[in-house]
Every structure is written in C-alpha cells, then in structure tokens.
C-alpha cells in the first residue's frame, strides 16, 4: 500500500458497531468489488468495496468478510477469506496479504483462503435465522451492471431459498455517515495533499497552457505524497467550459482573460478530499469576475454556518437558495420581479446555480448517508455553491469540506487559499 497501515482498532470498532445492529442469530457477508476489464488482457485499477474496507481495512480483490456474532462455533464468529497467493501471482502481480498481515490490518483472528469459503459457510449457515447481504444503496447510484453483490445474492437464494434475508445497507448508511477520529485524520491528510496540489497549480498556471498540463501537475503532487490518485475524475474547466458542470475533457487552451474552474481532490488510504476553486488564467480577476467570485464566496461562508447538528437537508438547501438569490439580484442576473414570479418547484436562482450545495464525504466522494437524516456530529460535508453565466463565458464554484463537531463546524480546508486577493498574490509572487 502507498499509505501506512491504519490502526486496526478502527475496523474492530466498526465491526462491533455493525454487529450491535444485527438481529439475534444473524450472519452477514460482505464481498470485495469486482475486477473490471479495461481491454483484452488488462483490468482497471482495483477499487475496494467501501463497506468491506470500512469493516476490515483489507484493500485487496477477491476478499470476503463473514460476521456471525452468535455462531455456535466460536471459530466462525468473525472470518476473513483471502485470495491465496502463489509463485505465479508473486511474479506477475506482486504483493498479496499473508494471513498474518491480514490479521494485523483487520484485527480478525480467523483468516482462511478463499477456497475454504463455501465449506465453512455451509457448515454454519443452517444455524442462522437471518442472513444479511449487501448491495450498493447509495441513492446517487443507478444500477445497470450485475456486480458481485448482486450475483452473490442470486447464488445465496438459489442455495438457501428458505432462509430469511436482510439488507446490510441501512445499517451501513447510519454507521458510515459519522466519522471516527481516525477517519477524520485520514480525510485531513487527503485535504492537505489537495492543498499542496492547488498551491502548485497557482504557481504553474499562465496563458497558453493546456488544461491537461494543469491536470498533470495535480496528479504529480498527489502521487508524490502517497495519495492513491484522484478521488474522482478532475475538472479543469477554463472559460466557457466552466459552465459544463461535469466537464472533464481537460483538453483546451487556457486563454488570457478567462477564469479556470477547478474541481479535484486527492484520495488517501481510501478517504477523499473534494475541493473546488476558480482562478484567473493571467493572475488577475477582472472587476466583473471578482464581483461574481466574491458573491459565490459569500454564499459558501453563509452556507457553512448552517452546517450544524440537527440541520435538515431540504431546509438547508432552501436557506442557501435564498442567500444565493440575494447575491444574484446584486449581480444584476435576477430581478425582484423574477423572484416574485418564480416557479416554487424550480426557483429563479436555479438558472445560475442548478446543483446542490452539499453532500457527505468519506470513503465514497459522495458518501453513503441518509438524504432525510438530519446532520449530526461527526458528519463531513462539502459546501460548494457556484454561479454559472454562459453568456459571459464565466463559471465560478468554490468548495470546502466541513466537519461537524459538538462545538460547531471545522473547515478542513481552512488553510487552502480562497480569498480572491490571496489567490492573485500567490499567482503573481
């Protein structure tokens, strides 16, 4: 791994918290992610199933975790199954966990090779009243591919049709939203790497460079500091491209007088940062660009104040919409008459700010959490307002990552430059 081994106590505690929410005499199974083919003889870089990682800390393909707290055989109350390495794998693929290494990483005592899974499961499954299986229930995910969890459910129902099946996802949704101190520290590290990449970009950007050249500077810093890579496909959107919310071609020239909208973040030890910034290609904002920039910054700061325990999603977004509306009127983009006659289902401000303001952040960039659950202590959320004006060839978005604590929220990106003057000063230093 590129990152130092994470304290196994994180995963021991995560399993303990999960087990507490199981029905009596229940068995739960978690599978590693699929390995996806990229071409005739290559796979895409492996990305672990976030729920399996959350409960085990094991960052390897073809892994299965079995939890059965009430199992009559103590050996099988907590079992990890691994792909067994061999001389061929050592030569062609390199490092794989040994049983001792997996035990050290996960805190799980009973480690078996994958070939033992079917026999061990069959020896205990008939004593369980309930079987908890997992699927991706992130409400941002649209299921189109029969991934490993879905295939495994079909196999289990075929083999054991009379068992009672339960969903693990509702339990994971509640657990993963609240971050432990270790998870917060890992997220802080991802944010720190992201900060250094942004500072590198500020000193590198000038008229005439290509968007992909900036992207290269970013990934250089990520890998240099032990990050896995990009937390998501980076957006390097100069000029009009900033009005394309998910622009990632990153192949255009950055022109004098334009603003570049960045949306990128580092992944570190499977935890993610998510940052947006907007900078002038030539190092100086025009008066209009700065006016729009400061309006977005105002909305971001006011929205951040609303990120507290107990806040409800819909109310929060409505309040942010009102703050944004005030700024758009000041910018001359909306009139009071536009607001008076707006469609309540699509408010007038949506013409220039059409996406949500926040999402949970964690092992997934858009982390698994309840859309209708009030914010709570330990949540990490993004705050990312934007104003997009196609007719001016201008798009501004600013985004920081906010941790809710008992004493208020903490901006995990407070040390990343965001004031327009500070950005100009660094670019011209």
From TrEMBL:
<keyword id="KW-0479">Metal-binding</keyword>
<dbReference type="InterPro" id="IPR001131">
    <property type="entry name" value="Peptidase_M24B_aminopep-P_CS"/>
</dbReference>
<dbReference type="InterPro" id="IPR029149">
    <property type="entry name" value="Creatin/AminoP/Spt16_N"/>
</dbReference>
<dbReference type="Pfam" id="PF05195">
    <property type="entry name" value="AMP_N"/>
</dbReference>
<dbReference type="InterPro" id="IPR000994">
    <property type="entry name" value="Pept_M24"/>
</dbReference>
<keyword id="KW-0482">Metalloprotease</keyword>
<dbReference type="InterPro" id="IPR052433">
    <property type="entry name" value="X-Pro_dipept-like"/>
</dbReference>
<dbReference type="Pfam" id="PF00557">
    <property type="entry name" value="Peptidase_M24"/>
</dbReference>
<keyword id="KW-0378">Hydrolase</keyword>
<keyword id="KW-0645">Protease</keyword>
<dbReference type="InterPro" id="IPR007865">
    <property type="entry name" value="Aminopep_P_N"/>
</dbReference>
<protein>
    <recommendedName>
        <fullName>Xaa-Pro aminopeptidase</fullName>
        <ecNumber>3.4.11.9</ecNumber>
    </recommendedName>
</protein>
<comment type="similarity">
    <text>Belongs to the peptidase M24B family.</text>
</comment>
<keyword id="KW-0464">Manganese</keyword>
<feature type="domain" description="Aminopeptidase P N-terminal">
    <location>
        <begin position="6"/>
        <end position="142"/>
    </location>
</feature>
<dbReference type="InterPro" id="IPR036005">
    <property type="entry name" value="Creatinase/aminopeptidase-like"/>
</dbReference>
<dbReference type="GO" id="GO:0006508">
    <property type="term" value="P:proteolysis"/>
</dbReference>
<dbReference type="GO" id="GO:0030145">
    <property type="term" value="F:manganese ion binding"/>
</dbReference>
<dbReference type="GO" id="GO:0070006">
    <property type="term" value="F:metalloaminopeptidase activity"/>
</dbReference>
<keyword id="KW-0031">Aminopeptidase</keyword>
């Amino acid at each position: 791994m590129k990152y130092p081994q994470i304290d196994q106590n994180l995963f021991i505690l995560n399993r303990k918290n999960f087990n507490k929410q199981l029905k009596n005499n229940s068995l739960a199974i978690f599978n590693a992610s699929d390995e996806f083919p990229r071409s005739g003889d290559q796979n895409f870089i492996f990305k672990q199933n976030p729920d399996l990682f959350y409960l085990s800390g094991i960052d390897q393909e073809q892994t299965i975790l079995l939890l059965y707290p009430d199992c009559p055989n103590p050996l099988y109350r907590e079992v990890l199954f691994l792909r067994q390495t061999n001389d061929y794998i050592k030569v062609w693929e390199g490092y794989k966990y040994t049983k001792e290494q997996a035990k050290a990483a996960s805190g799980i005592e009973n480690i078996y090779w994958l070939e033992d899974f079917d026999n061990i499961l069959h020896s205990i499954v008939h004593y369980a009243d309930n079987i908890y299986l997992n699927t991706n229930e992130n409400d941002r995910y649209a299921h189109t591919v029969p991934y490993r969890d879905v295939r495994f459910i079909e196999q289990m129902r075929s083999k054991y049709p009379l068992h009672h099946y339960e969903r693990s996802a509702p339990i994971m949704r509640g657990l993963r939203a609240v971050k432990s101190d270790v998870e917060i520290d890992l997220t802080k590290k991802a944010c720190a790497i992201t900060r250094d990449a942004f500072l590198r970009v500020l000193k590198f950007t000038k008229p005439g460079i290509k968007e992909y050249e900036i992207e290269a500077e970013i990934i250089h810093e990520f890998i240099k500091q032990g990050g896995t890579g990009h937390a998501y496909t980076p957006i390097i959107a100069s000029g009009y491209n900033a009005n394309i919310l998910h622009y990632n071609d990153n192949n255009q020239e950055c022109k004098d007088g334009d603003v570049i909208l960045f949306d990128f973040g580092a992944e570190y030890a499977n935890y993610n940062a998510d940052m947006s910034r907007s900078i002038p290609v030539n190092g100086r904002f025009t008066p209009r660009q700065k006016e729009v920039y400061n309006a977005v910054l105002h909305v971001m700061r006011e929205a951040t104040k609303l990120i507290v325990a107990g806040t409800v999603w819909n109310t929060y977004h409505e309040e942010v919409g009102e703050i944004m509306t005030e700024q758009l009127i000041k910018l001359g983009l909306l009139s009071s008459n536009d607001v008076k006659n707006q469609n309540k289902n699509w408010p007038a401000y949506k013409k220039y700010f059409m996406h949500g303001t926040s999402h949970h952040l964690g092992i997934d960039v858009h982390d698994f959490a309840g859309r209708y659950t009030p914010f709570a202590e330990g949540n990490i959320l993004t705050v990312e307002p934007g104003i997009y004006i196609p007719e001016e060839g201008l798009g501004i978005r600013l985004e920081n990552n906010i941790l809710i604590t008992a004493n208020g929220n903490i901006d995990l990106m407070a040390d990343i430059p965001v004031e327009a003057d500070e950005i100009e000063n660094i670019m011209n230093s």
